[in-house]
Write a structure and sequence with these properties.
Elements lengths: L5 E10 L4 E9 L2 E6 L12 E5 L4 E4 L1 E6 L4 E2 L2 E2 L4 H10 L2 E8 L7 H12 L6 E6 L7 H8 L6 H5 L3 H17 L4 E6 L2 H12 L4 E5 L1 H5 L10 H5 L13 H10 L15 H4 L19 H11 L5 H15 L17 E11 L18 E11 L2 E5 L2 E2 L16 H13 L23 H12 L2
Parallel strand pairs: 1-4, 1-5, 6-9, 9-10, 11-12
Antiparallel strand pairs: 1-2, 2-3, 5-13, 7-8, 13-14, 14-15, 15-16
Length: 459
Amino acid sequence: MAAPSRLLIRGGRVVNDDFSEVADVLVEDGVVRALGHDLLPPGGAPVGLRVLDAAGKLVLPGGIDTHTHMEFPFMDSRSIDDFHQGTKAALAGGTTMIIDFAIPQKGGSLIEAFETWRSWADPKVCCDYSLHVAVTWWSDQGAKKMLALGITGPEGHELCRPEAVEAEATLRAITIASAVNCPLYIVHVMSKSAAKVIADARRDRKVVYGEPIAASLGTDGTHYWNKEWHHAAHHVMGPPLRPDPSTPDFLMNLLANDDLTTTGTDNCTFNTCQKALGKDDFTKIPNGVNGVEDRMSVIWEKGVHSGKMDENRFVAVTSTNAAKIFNLYPRKGRIAVGSDADIVIWDPKATRTISAKTHHQAVNFNIFEGMVCHGVPLVTISRGKVVYEAGVFSVTAGDGKFIPRKPFAEYIYKRIKQRDQTCTPTPVERAPYKGEVATLKSRVTKEDATVGTRKQAHP
């Protein structure tokens, strides 16, 4: 991505996760070079310097969506937002980096899956990206019970994946991870029960992080019982949205209070005709919802505008925490000298109404349809280049970059390493036992006796 030589964002309120200050931001060659007051020299802007006036606006680190599935093969279909359209939509919403999931076929090579996803993404991405590699499988035994009861509609999807199961799986994963002193990151937290398990574990000093998504923070599972089949089907995802309408508010409270840590979208979109593959059988409905374009606005509306969190916590849960956990910080997730110039000029007073008619994603349905959001991205800057401004894109396929990540992020593993040093079991020092020791007679098993009897019967 060819960035202009120099860019100055003037007069905005620079917001990081730990503090805010009114300052100018000077960008050169895609990197933040200076922060301060009155960085523009007397006499106006020199040649080659573009000035963006951010007075009265917020200047935020670009959002990092921790969880997407672009052009994902699923149930004999493929999600309709590919790496090109999906990442363009991300930029429109103020997200400058996504972390997509490379999912190998059952029994397939992890490396081959990684390389396959790279081959799909590299020529198309409009924003920076990285990859998770997953190993996954599931059983269809619950689903068969619902179908036997005659429940074929989208509501069956939620009924065969009850909240208690999500909570139990979360607790099991936390227990196993803690037993081997391993950090744990739990994706798409959808229910109050699972969120409580994570919150309790964190308060019990477990190294665990929970990721609610835009869908679980902005809507609920009552839509599965909607009389319009296509409306209900467009909300089908796994784990499903929960029908308790108090769930989004509950999750947002935990996110604001650091019981939950990051936010993604699980963006995996399918058009109505694709969803209709399961018109007579909910198990055949392709799973997935939208969110990559709307995540930032939904969280600002439900979190900041509602008074649950401040602007700094917003930056933490939409960008900085993800950068720290996934070893991208401070290159990403912060506006600081030396950081990538992934920046969003944000108007906290402006409003927009979310609609499938106006969004930039390829999907023909939006689960947040009609939601009025305070907080609008005006300008999105990716590595120093203005890529979205006033509704207009200045980006082409392939402008984004794959960002490699080193393992063992200090933000997570410094606690793990400390526990390894201080919590290693040691033997109890005691005098040797000097008493008598019983003599055991050899035992003949039932199988041995049977074999012996057969040998006697058949010499």
